[in-house]
Specification:
The protein has 192 residues and is an all-alpha fold. Among the domains are: 58 residues, no CATH class; 43 residues, no CATH class; 31 residues, no CATH class. A two-stranded antiparallel sheet has the order 1-2. Strand 1 and strand 2 form a beta hairpin. Helix 1 runs antiparallel to helix 2. The protein is flat. It starts with a strand and ends with a helix.
Length: 192
């Protein structure tokens, strides 16, 4: 067992093998002990030894989920919905524009019949949003961008490219440059 010579404290909780010290769980209770025993140098050393990549910290190391477990939970949800006669899960977005009529509840609100709205939503859940498009940018957000960004977005929607590459005949251009240099009066004065 290794002993810290400065404090006569056993270092058996610190990773004794050649493994890289990535997160505080590998230190055991050493950080806590160094705080309670007022060993600032040990505390700062232990923190400095930890990996500085945030993605390696213990709170970001999540257990891997098995795909079959996810499928089983979906099947269980469907089975429970059927067993308890629950309606289908609320869809995320409208599937077609005809579903907008479901939101026509102004007369019920005018009659102060909010219970009917809640009951109809419980029996047949309405979609939560109007669109399910991760590429959609709201007009107020797009309005706060530069004109170039707005043009790129509108041209991108119409599948046209704003900055197109120009086809150029390099050999023809070089021949033109060479011919103009030969015919130039500056070339004659330099060679004389």
């Amino acid at each position: 067992m290794a002993v810290n010579a400065a404090n006569n404290i056993p270092d058996n909780n610190i990773a004794s093998n050649s493994a890289i010290l990535l997160h505080e769980l590998q230190l055991g209770e050493q950080l806590n002990k160094s705080v309670h025993q007022a060993r600032r140098a040990d505390f700062t050393l232990l923190l400095a030894m930890l990996c500085d990549d945030v993605r390696e910290q213990s709170q970001f190391i999540l257990p891997q989920t098995d795909v079959s477990l996810v499928e089983q939970s979906k099947q269980t949800t469907q089975t429970l919905r059927k067993h308890f006669d629950l309606p289908e899960q609320a869809p995320l977005a409208l599937k077609d524009m005809a579903q907008i009529n479901q939101y026509n509840q102004s007369q019920l609100i005018a009659d102060d019949d909010l219970v009917s709205i809640q009951l109809s939503n419980a029996l047949s859940p309405k979609p939560l949003t109007f669109r399910d498009d991760c590429q959609h940018i709201a007009s107020n957000v797009l309005g706060n961008t530069s004109l170039i960004c707005q043009e790129k977005h509108t041209h991108q929607q119409s599948s046209a490219v704003l900055n197109k590459r120009i086809n150029m005949n390099i050999e023809g251009w070089l021949k033109t440059v060479q011919t103009s240099l030969v015919k130039s009066s500056l070339v004659d004065t330099i060679t004389v």
